[in-house]
Amino acid sequence: MTQTERIIMMEEYLDSTDKALNDLEKALDAYMSAREKIKALDAYYGSQEWFDDLRDDEEGRLPADLKRGVLSEDGIYDVLMKDKELPVRMLECAAEILKNQ
User: Fold this and answer.
1) DSSP code at position 63
2) How far is it, in rounded angstroms, from Cα 74 to Cα 52?
3) With 0-12 CB in 10 A as exposed, 13-18 as middle and 19+ as buried, what is 99?
């Protein structure tokens, strides 16, 4: 590898790494901002309100064009499980990074 090739490669590494770090920082900020919404979804899912809303949907009392993914069991469940799994993954990533520095 020539000196010029090495510098070009390292410049690409710098640019892509800087972008990845900035993207991660923004994603972490967005995730932390969503924590209250996640707590609200957790409280709603399986609550009497949720069951009432589901019943009303099944009985056709809700507008036909209303977005209702929140009434599917999988929609909220998947988000809540991801919320439980993601912090574990973040810890595993952090441990790997710290171990290899």
Assistant:
1) -
2) 17
3) exposed
Q: pLDDT digits over 79-89, tens only?
A: 999 999 999 99
For residues 90 and 31, what is the distance between their CA atoms, to the nearest angstrom?
A: 12
pTM: 0.78
Rounded to an integer, what distance in angstroms lies between the CA atom of residue 85 and that of residue 25?
Answer: 19
The tokens for 76 are: 């909220």
Exposure string over 58-80, b if 16+ CB within 10 A, otherwise e: eeeeeeeeeeeeebeeeebeebe
- Give the pLDDT confidence of 24-59 residue by residue, as tens digits: 999 999 999 999 999 999 999 999 999 999 999 999
Domain ranges of the chain: 1-33, 35-101
User: What is the distance between the alpha carbons of residues 21 and 74, in angstroms, rounded to a whole number?
Assistant: 32
- Report helix angle 35-44 to 73-99, nearest 10: 140
